[in-house]
Amino acid sequence: MRVVTDADIREHLTATDAVGWMREAVLAAYDGRLHTPPRVQAELGDGNLIFTTGALTGEWYGYRSYDTFDTDPGSQLVVVHDWRTGAVRGVAVGNELGPRRVGAIGGVAVDALARKDATTLGLVGTGKQAWTQLWAISAVRPLSSIAVFSRDADRRNAFATRVSEELGLPATAVGSAREAVEGRDLVVLATSSPAPVIDAEWVAPGTFVTTLGPKVVGRAEFGPDLVDRADLVVTDSVDQTHAYDPPFVLTGTPQHDRLIGLGEVLAGNVSGRTVVFCSVGLAGTEAYLLARLVDSAPWSSVR
């Protein structure tokens, strides 16, 4: 059994590998080889204990568990078992693996659907999910300009500086969401806002937009008008959008009927001009990423 820490992941997991492995996972789910049921939860008073499970037929099965308390989150746990023996093959403890796989799935979506000449990116939000999206997207598109906005000026300035120093990319903090979004080839919304953070009219034709934040009825960082503007609306898990409680923001609207899965895009070469990608969390992908890591990485800190 190998135990993988956050430090291991930061040091050894490359964006290129992560995007490649998540592309494999999305296709495996589309083919029916990766089993990806919607997540389940147990109520814990002020929060919930969440489980996402998955299984790759004939190879492994596993799960991720985490809580939703408003205080600083506890460490997430990802476990992978051998399909044949049931033995634990790998365990990841910490808070890096989950956001990295979300970022990598976002990178898969950009690579499949964004214009090949897309080089400018607008980012609304400066948390961990914003960082891992940028980390992964930079592996599939040569980013020439990144505009960063969040409500806290110190945070957005610090984030832009970190992007320049750690990723070697040209990033600038800007004073409004509109300034971050208008005229950009790629847009990433990664906030905790319960209300739309951008006006759909700011999104230029041909833009690829990823939304990662709240997306349930009464609490969503984007509105149906953004979907109305899109030629193509994609998600990593259509099943998960049907399992939200409260309901997914598009439930009961014509826009929900337009949703297609990212696996269908990859398998069928589906394309669109203006694209909205709703990242909801394809179950089993955390375990898939861990399984690939423990099979490939000769880390001295892994035992």
Task: Note the topology.
Elements: E1 2-5, H1 6-12, H2 15-31, E2 34-35, E3 40-43, E4 48-56, E5 60-67, E6 76-82, E7 88-94, H3 97-113, E8 120-124, H4 128-137, E9 145-149, H5 153-167, E10 171-173, H6 177-181, E11 186-189, E12 208-211, E13 215-216, E14 219-220, H7 224-229, E15 232-235, H8 238-243, H9 254-257, E16 260-261, H10 262-268, E17 275-278, H11 285-296
Parallel strand pairs: 1-7, 8-9, 8-11, 9-10, 11-12, 12-17, 15-16, 15-17
Antiparallel strand pairs: 2-4, 3-4, 4-5, 5-6, 6-7, 13-14
Overview of the structural elements:
Helix 5 links the parallel strand 9 (145-149) and strand 10. Helix 2 packs across helix 10. The chain is an alpha/beta fold and 303 residues long. The chain is globular and about 55 Å long. Helices cover 35% and strands 25% of the residues. The mean pLDDT is 94. It has two domains: 2-98 and 284-296, ornithine cyclodeaminase, domain 1 (2-Layer Sandwich), CATH 3.30.1780.10; 102-278, NAD(P)-binding Rossmann-like Domain (Rossmann fold).
**What is the CATH class name of the largest domain?**
Alpha Beta
Helix content: 25-40%
CATH architecture of the largest domain: 3-Layer(aba) Sandwich
**CATH-defined superfamily of the largest domain:** NAD(P)-binding Rossmann-like Domain
Please trace the helix and strand order, writing H or E for each element. Answer: EHHEEEEEEHEHEHEHEEEEHEHHEHEH
Shape: globular
